[in-house]
Amino acid sequence: xxxxxxxxxxxxxxxxxxxxxxxxxxxxxxxxxxxxxxxxxxxxxxxxxxxxxxxxxxxxxxxxxxxxxxxxxxxxxxxxxxxxxxxxxxxxxxxxxxxxxxxxxxxxxxxxxxxxxxxxxxxxxxxxxxxxxxxxxxxxxxxxxxxxxxxxxxxxxxxxxxxxxxxxxxxxxxxxxxxxxxxxxxxxxxxxxxxxxxxxxxxxxxxxxxxxxxxxxxxxxxxxxxxxxxxxxxxxxxxxxxxxxxxxxxxxxxxxxxxxxxxxxxxxxxxxxxxxxxxxxxxxxxxxxxxxxxxxxxxxxxxxxxxxxxxxxxxxxxxxxxxxxxxxxxxxxxxxxxxxxxxxxxxxxxxxxxxxxxxxxxxxxxxxxxxxxxxx
Length: 376
Hints:
Blueprint: H1 17-45, H2 52-79, H3 87-116, H4 130-203, H5 207-226, E1 232-234, H6 235-253, E2 257-263, E3 271-273, H7 278-287, E4 296-305, E5 308-315, H8 332-345, E6 350-355, E7 361-368
Parallel strand pairs: 2-4
Antiparallel strand pairs: 1-3, 4-5, 5-7, 6-7
Helix pairs in contact: 1-2, 2-3, 3-4, 4-5, 4-6, 4-8, 5-6
């Protein structure tokens, strides 16, 4: 991904600079050979043999003279680009550039041919009277100039369009990241306030218990801050944060709270959203109390399922009345979790709440099975 400080115009390149200039060189060389083929076959058609060496010399020196001027032409055309709002000013400048290009190209061809013809054994080269040669070559250069201008415009327009696409994609990605970060920041105070309220409720009853709960909360916050810049963490780390939270709850509820885990060992390095399990377990603790007793049984499971990761949190409570009808309102924890999953995985996930047949609620989260890239 491009650097955040990298200029937008440089964020996307169709190809490397070396490759681009090699293709330009190849294009001018091909043009030179095509012109040579036309001129030489014309000589043969007119019964003028023995012109092979002179024709290829003339056409290739003409092609490479234009190639030497091409970088300057690109520089000039880009700075006087004709647009709807400036054509009256830039069009005359383009016409002057066309004349300058023709004069420079004709002069360069005259000098290069005069110097190189003896080197290649072609004798002294006669380019004719320059007073007539300049307007003669200008007639060819008018067409060539505007073709080159058109090619430059097309390449630049494609480059600018790709830059806009990349910039738009980056902006959307940053917006999505900011939204996810905002959701996570909303969730952290939510569970923090609930944890502090729990600690406050036992502060005057059992100071030692409250002190132990504060120590567990401190450990939980350290773990959370350690992964503050990551939307996803290994399942092993997520379970460690959940157990720190549960230590607080177990100190509060004692034997009335029982949580068991069934996690496949091979899944420890699988990535999951940070704090994905805590609000689900918290919801079970708050609403999953058995109607016949004060006991809460929570089951946390993690396993492979058809190439995906399946996380499940279930309890022994009354479930959700009218769940199938949709006539109920999610709390902060569940709604926040659902939005985060949508933001991270889009449609590549499943978030399902079901009343269990034997009582209680089961929350299932199905995620893509992927692991963190190894550190380099």
